[in-house]
## 1
Amino acid sequence: MPAASIEWFPLWLSLRVASLATILILTFGTFVAYFLSHKNFRGKEALDSLITLPLVLPPTVLGYYLLVLVGRNSVFGHLYESAFGQPLVFTWQAAVVAAVLHSAPIYVKGARTVLEGVDYRFEWVAHSLGASEWRTFLRITLPLAWRGLSSLASLCFARSLGDFGITMMVAGNIPGQTQTLSVAIFDAVESGNGQAARMLVLVISVTALVLLWAAARLSRPTARASHTA
Amino acid sequence: MGGGALIAPHGKGKSHGMSQPVKIDARLIKRLPAIGETKEFQLNIHLKSDAAITVLWGASGAGKTLALHCLGGFTKPDEGRILINDELYFDAATQVNLPPQNRRCGYVFQDHALFPHMTVRENLKFAAASARHSSKLNKHRRMIELLEAFELSDLAGRKPAQLSGGQKQRAALARMLVGDPRLILLDEPTRGLDSRLKQAFYQVLRTTRERSHAPIVLVTHDLEECMQLAEFVCLMEDGHFVQSGARDQVFARPASSEVASALGVYNLLPAKIAALDPSRDTCSLEVAGSEVQGPYLKGRLIGDQGFLCLRQTESRLLPNIGRRERNQIVLRVTGVVPSSQGAKLLLEHGAAATVSEAEYVHLRGEDTVKLDVPPSAVYFLAK
């Protein structure tokens, strides 16, 4: 088998992009979800809808928005370029931004539900004992929501692996630089490299399946765990 | 076992100075809009109590828990003011609203709400680390003391799921006391417990009283518990107090026939005022064809209709034989049901009386019985 003819770089890039995207989503998404689940403010549901929007818009539209938002002529693009010395678009970092946009809605939506599901009485008790909101969040809410959130995180990771449209729009298809797994599959099929395409398809399918299985296991309500934990 | 004397009005070793401010003074108005099936609701109470244990008693839906939430700072009242030991917790007029973190209210939920992912010791440690006053050393010492006092030292390494109901209760109370609260709020602490565990809880509550001077506000729908624990009672119905006062006063003199029937331990017999004699301080009531004498009724007129309100334990049941003495009412027996204390006789006018087995021997098979009412027990309630 001439396995040497398959370029593995796209797999490593995809894993790196998905990991970074997941970390970013976990950090910021959890806070957004906390505010959506625990605070009452004006425009809360409007914000929720805005966050959900990427789930339903075509990837090309999202890619277009991103280009407008972080392109070289945009305010953010200028800021990024002066801070890091290179433009954001058509780099692998842009693929991270694309993956975040692709996966964040699922995480924030789910995390809101998970955090809302944490029994408010535990938080009330913590407050009445004098614990600040931050401390209550870190020591009570987060540990109690941990299973749900980590299940969402693996879902997020799996989804980040698979983005194609947005990545193509903002990161492009530069082999060895921005070519992620899904883009590489597209490329392999286009150029008639059937063996590479089959291999990459198999790899991404198995990875996604394993991640989904892990997510399902984590989100399963374990009666036993609560007794023996 | 903890009996009625469990919490004496003046707990041992605790002298409350005369100049002390009122412990609890809370005026609360909170409106809840109608949602779906539930009707709109308004809580409107003025809780003013100096007692060590104040009990809010009422059926579910009376607003007891909502009142506790307002005191604890979890729900913001629409109007009113909360003063605890002269400290302002909430004032709608000046927009003061201390967050729960700054109120130092020990709140214990019905099912204890021990943090499930922490051991008992970690639960208490969390409380110690969260308390914003007193030194670290003090808090640590207090924690050790409390583990000891509530017999938790051997259980400290266990998670809540490994504790029995009574142990959870002790742990929840100990955790609440770590922060040395200024006000203790207990929401139906014995709901769903059997009577043995209830008694155990009263015992633990005594330990709590020994460890904290903070006034306790306890919510319950259990009349027996209310009798055992309360010094001061507020009877709640539909968001307001129908009556409040010292326990004995409230139970000896329910404010209306509605209150009396809600409490469920009174016999209400239709009565008419037949005579009033202020000079001899007597009155005479016509009850079920009999005449009953009692103390003079101020502000009433002859012919007023109402009820003779008798606590079921205030009167004696006698077989209907021999001459009818003064203050004896003859009532028809409509049924008998067995009771844990003997037998419960159901009488006409919806009255009932529980008698011991020994007394029942003399009453068995009787169609009518005599209710012997001591004049001091005569209490007239207008319709």
## 2
Amino acid sequence: MSSEQTAYFERLRMHLGLGDPVESDLVRELASHVEDRVGQLVAGGTPEARAREIAFAGFGRPETLAHLVRQAHLVTPWLEALLGAAAFLLVGLMIGLGLWQQPIAAAAGGTLVIALTLYGLWLGRPPWFYPWAGIALTIPIIVGYVAFAVLQRETPLLLDGAAGPFGLAGFAGALLYFPVGLVVVAAAVLVAVRRDWLDASVLLSPLPCALVWVIAIQRAGGITSAGAALTDTGALLCAVYVCMAVAALVFLRASVRSFKVTTLIGAALVLVLGSTLLLDPGGGLVAFTGRAALLLAFLLSPALVARHA
Amino acid sequence: MAQTAIDRRDRRDEMMTLSSYLTQLLKGNTDVLILSLLQREPMYGHQILQELEQTSAGFFQVSEGTLYPALYRLAREGYIRGKWAKLATGQERKVYALTKKGDRRLGECISTWSGFAAAMERVTTPHP
């Protein structure tokens, strides 16, 4: 490959952001096209250097070509879009049917989420990967909740000097968990932002749902005794997750970026409505608006990160 | 003298408008052209451009910057499928083939196009 060719493809890849497997395949294909075109022009009497210039002129500026290729990749095939939406549907069903309280079902669900996330990672992060990775990131929230429960239980014992060695270890672990969890989420978002901030927003979208769920569990008496008290809450949360699944499907199938952003905002508003009905039904318009603003700022924050990255 | 310059400029503007009209027509039909060629036989990118130019006697000159995004879009939508294959020359090329879905889509597009062309013909043909 000539140095001009290398420079062109490097610039192209810089603006593509589609992941290594897709980009390598694309560059391989375009390089073979250049080879064919140059061969054709040289056979027609054009000097090789000029033939190469003509061949690259056909592609246009690498930035423009990258933009057009990215546009072409905005639409996710139906099957992949359904797979992406299935992440929210799975959690919705687990909450709605109370399966999260059955250890085997909960473990099977968690394993499926982690397995599909790792598989997506191995495939080079296709669009369906982000909802699954987002759900996988909610696992630290659940663990964080358990850590919070440990802190709540052990702190008074520790202050009285009555904590045992297991209590001390649990306290230290729980204390360490929060910064580590934050670093994990921040790192995942930063990696996603490098490709497209919208992917990072999708990655973040399940986190507020999980937070609402955890608050609901805490209000219903904690993770071990929340069961029966969460029947109505579970139904509403299940409905929110089903709405999120529909939003994910629409988002992945949308071919225009502005429509994707609108879908994301719409899904956020459904979540705010659901969380208000669940946690603070008499909160009033100001509280609702505040919550909506906070959630939108959280979900759209990757755009700011991308701008400064 | 001044009138000639104005006429020349008007003519140039007219040509540019016509060229833009043709570009728009081509842009709206690139997918159908690609699908039609792939219905004949599976082809790779450079081959598609060559076939398009030869079959249309040089009328359709699609640039690489238009072709490849269109190929990727059609592949994403499931109308065509690209696969690396070894040619008789020993070189490897990504060869695109029409899928069943693409074949159906092409049939629909051609039918719409036929209706459109017939209607255009009826409207643009001067009355005797």
## 3
Amino acid sequence: MTQTTEPTTVHAAIEVDAPQQRAFEVFTRDFGAFKPPDHNLLQVPIAETVVETHVGGHIIDRGTDGSECRWARVLAYEPPSRFLFSWDISPSWGIETDPSRTSEVEVTFTALDAGRTRVELEHRHLDRHGDGWDAVRGGVESDEGWPLYLDRFAALLTS
Amino acid sequence: MDEWAALGDRTRREIFARLAVAPSAVGELAATLPVTRPAVSQHLKVLKDAGLITDERAGARRIYRVEPGGLSRMRAELDSFWNATLTAYKRAVEEPGTTATPIDQRTQQFRHPGDQP
């Protein structure tokens, strides 16, 4: 289901037997119903997950004790075709409060026919999470630095 | 120290970037960096412990190179997370009126040691 392309992006895609509109609605409205239950930064089980349906809103996990975790910001909400949100979770599994150090997830919904939809997901800019990656990019001379570094690294990943 | 924390240090980032361009011995790195050879060795040890580089003996020298598994570990976690999520999503969207059943534990590696079970 997922393919390797470049090292700082994760792709996933699936085709579902549902019209485009429903595919979009279920993904956004019912996200908490199919999100893995272990995806939880709260100290208690999640009672519900709310996706706010406007740019500037959040994806919010609400715990059984009323506590909240806002782990994503809604960056684009364009039914029935596109949903974009930030991934404000650091690699060490905490909330990242600096937006420049968060990655983003774009989900697109393409109608294949009246009752079938292709859902494609791209989780990109993973390098933003690393304290070091930006600095490496800026701090190494361009001609033999970052571009070559990324090329070599990509080659290593796919070899 | 995990791979991200290991790269939080400027000198280690520089060492890592150089090794990505070309595998090197400690002496070659120290010759072109404003730090001592023992300091380079210490940084190499941290990078190696974090799984970002590997070393290999070549005659009298030890050659360090980038271990591609470092960044790919994070990718693998997210791959697994999204695959699990989309599989459960497919069930939810194709069965109107039903709630998706909890899926397996593949995302457990997202947790910190010491987190709630």
